[in-house]
Write a structure and sequence with these properties.
alpha/beta; five-stranded mixed β-sheet; globular; about 160 residues
Length: about 160
């Protein structure tokens, strides 16, 4: 039984911080409008969420559910030809949301449902993200190499 709190109440077992942030990233991913992969991202500093992002078309533009997926139509494999997507990635949207709202993210930690692609990896490096936690792999070897070269540790969800 948990130890009593002041006032005599008890506290159920709380999730560890990493589990807590991963669960939030999954909820953020549920807002995704991508037809191929639903991705959610959080930027966190000192256990405080700075910004969130999910993948989908830019604000005010038609979603892929309405227009169809060009990458799917062209049979582009995952991890290739990122420029052929009308959507932004979750990591990009989190960085953009922080910028739009004037929130500094230097030194922040990224929690993401999927491993960043090379485009996002370059943005995360320049945004000075300190480390990355991911739940799912993504087939992009150059991304792994760049993050390693930038000395940004990547951890997979346990």
């Amino acid at each position: 039984m948990p130890a009593p709190l002041e006032g005599g109440s008890t506290l159920k077992k709380r999730p560890a911080w990493d589990r807590y942030f991963f669960e939030i990233a999954r909820v953020v991913a549920s807002r995704s409008t991508c037809l191929r992969r639903r991705v959610g991202a959080l930027l966190v500093l000192d256990k405080r969420i700075l910004a969130t992002g999910y993948n989908g078309a830019p604000a005010g533009l038609a979603h892929c559910a309405e227009t169809g997926c060009l990458r799917e139509k062209m049979q582009v494999p995952a991890g290739e030809r990122h420029e052929l997507c009308r959507g932004l990635h979750a990591e990009q949207n989190a960085i953009i949301q922080a910028a739009v709202h004037g929130v500094g993210i230097e030194g922040a930690v990224l929690y993401c449902t999927h491993y960043p692609c090379v485009v996002c990896a370059k943005m995360l490096i320049n945004a000075k993200i300190s480390r990355i936690y991911v739940a799912e792999p993504y087939p992009d070897e150059l991304s792994r190499e760049l993050l390693k070269d930038a000395d940004i540790s990547v951890y997979f969800e346990a």
